[in-house]
Write a structure and sequence with these properties.
GO terms for molecular function: glycosyltransferase activity. This is Glycosyltransferase family 4 protein. Pfam families: Glycos_transf_1. InterPro entries: Glyco_trans_1. The chain has 11 helices and 14 strands. By secondary structure, the chain is α/β, with parallel strands linked by helices. It has an 8-stranded mixed β-sheet with strand order 3-4-2-1-5-6-7-8. Helix 1 links the parallel strand 1 and strand 2.
Length: 349
């Protein structure tokens, strides 16, 4: 870990379009900022395969971003993969690459495997989400390679092993605690944060709130996020007479999300699946109580009710509402230095 002039190249399907974009894969942004500080002399380059939709290279906190502009179009996939390999070849000729770090089991890991095998380069793959559970042909490329695979939690590690019989080490994400606002008096009883899609299961979230309002008449509930199910959920809210209870705020900047967390009592998370659950880290550090299923890094504690069914979620929310007047305390579940040190060890193997 003595060599500070190394060159690390990151491969990801998408990335922030600018330093002002705080909502595109926040966990990856926090990690890369911390790595940049840990390796001030290293050259860090990132190839983003699909988005943002631009061909112009740009600097992001001292990291060169090279967009391949695939635009998530199937017709451009093979062209993007060829461009990625050509770009990596040019980069390697100019500034020798020591490590390639790919994100997701997908096109990036496959390109990473192909290039690192050809050039005898160290390769790390971080599994990011449902890629641990949904079988795809890209995983075959990892089976007989020397790649080091990283998962984000014990649940995530178990899913990867079950799906692909691939071993991995666990390195959790961490927070940038300097980004958080001061804790405030609760003005929101129950908060939901996440994309409005099937996995996040907001239909059950709304049903749970409907049941709780029979006991707690004046609840203030806010959902932050956008997605394909927004109209459907809005109709469900109206049909259950919850227009004055639940507010759909839509997509918000990460700064705005953390402001709402600082003003909220309970994070209700009805998602069926999480690889990690970065929102859990944020909520705990914002002094919130958590109610969720056993997903991601879920860990039962006095601050976190881990439930097995919808009825348990309802009862846990009711119990947490009784504690609404207790002093809020920040809980930090993962350590930045430990996460960065673990990745540095992989980069230098």
């Amino acid at each position: 870990m003595e060599n500070k002039s190394q060159h690390i190249v990151f491969l990801t399907p998408g990335f922030a379009e600018s330093e002002e974009d705080s909502t595109t894969i926040p966990a990856l942004q926090v990690f890369l900022k911390a790595l940049r500080k840990a390796l001030p002399e290293a050259k860090l380059t990132l190839l983003t395969f699909q988005f943002p939709f631009t061909k112009k290279r740009y600097d992001w906190h001292g990291i060169e971003i090279i967009p391949l502009n695939g635009q998530s179009k199937k017709t451009k996939k093979f062209w993007v993969w060829k461009k990625a390999l050509n770009t990596l070849k040019k980069i390697h000729q100019k500034d020798e690459i020591e490590t390639i770090h790919s994100f997701w089991i997908g096109e990036c890991s496959s390109i990473g495997v192909r290039f690192t095998k050809e050039h005898s380069i160290n390769h790390v793959v971080t599994v990011m989400g449902q890629d641990a559970t949904v079988v795809n042909f890209h995983a075959k490329n990892l089976l007989h390679s020397k790649v080091r695979i990283v998962t984000l939690s014990q649940n995530h590690q178990a899913e990867l092993l079950k799906t692909y019989n691939l071993d991995s080490i666990i390195i959790p994400w961490h927070l940038d605690v300097d980004f958080f606002p001061e804790l405030q008096k609760n003005t929101i009883d129950i908060l939901g944060v996440g994309s409005l899609n099937t996995i996040k299961n907001y239909s059950d979230f709304i049903k749970i709130i409907s049941t709780i309002t029979k006991t707690y008449k004046n609840l203030k509930v806010v959902i932050i996020g956008d997605g394909t199910l927004r109209n459907e959920l809005q109709i469900q809210i109206r049909s259950l007479g919850l227009m004055n209870t639940i507010t759909l705020l839509g997509k918000r900047s990460r700064k705005d999300v953390l402001e709402k967390m600082a003003q909220s009592n309970i994070l209700l998370h009805t998602s069926h699946y999480e690889s990690f659950g970065f929102v859990f880290l944020e909520a705990l550090y914002s002094g919130m109580q958590l109610v969720s299923y056993n997903v991601g890094l879920a860990k039962a504690s006095q601050h976190w009710n881990v439930c097995h069914d919808k009825l348990e979620l309802i009862e846990a929310c009711k119990s947490a509402l009784l504690k609404s007047n207790k002093t809020k305390n920040r809980i930090l579940m993962s350590n930045r230095q430990e996460s960065i040190t673990a990745y540095l060890a992989l980069y230098h193997e």
